[in-house]
Amino acid sequence: MATLTLRLSDDLKSQASEVAEYYGFDLGAVTRAFYSQMVREHAIPLNLRAYEPNEESLRAIAETDTAIASGDYDLYDDASSLLDAAKAQS
After folding, report:
1. Residue 2's CB: how many other CB atoms inside 10 A?
2. Using CA atoms, how far apart are residues 79 and 89, in angstroms rounded to an integer?
3. Which partner for 67 in 21, 25, 73, 90 could form a disulfide, CB atoms 3.0-4.6 Å apart?
4. pLDDT-derived band of residue 57, with 50, 70 and 90 as boundaries?
């Protein structure tokens, strides 16, 4: 097994660690995953970004949060029951 040493600023390392931890990883795991993906795809994979919901999604999230907080929602045992209830409302 080989060892890799990187020189980077404390600030960059700290910020990168926060991002990695947000996704449940440490920097070593992210580095190994990066190299594995690079070898598997024969490319340098640098398009990693957090999902940012659009306005419609943000409204839906807010509506859901409100419904959960107020207890104003129905529970369904299966997808068929959910679809039947949705059809009945339209």
Report:
1. 3
2. 16
3. 73
4. very high
| DSSP structure class, residue 5 | -
3-state secondary structure of 3: coil
DSSP string of 40-79, one letter each residue = HHTS-----------HHHHHHHHHHHHHHHHT-----SSH
Helices and strands (H, E) in the chain, number of each type: 4, 0
Q: Which amino acid belongs to residue 41? A: E
* Length of the chain, in residues: 90
Tokens for 13, please give them. 């390392």
Residue 27, burial from CB neighbour count under 10 angstroms (0-12, 13-18, 19+): middle
Q: Which residue has the tokens 């190299």?
A: 35
Q: How far is CA 80 from the centre of its chain?
A: 28
Tokens describing residue 20: 């990695």
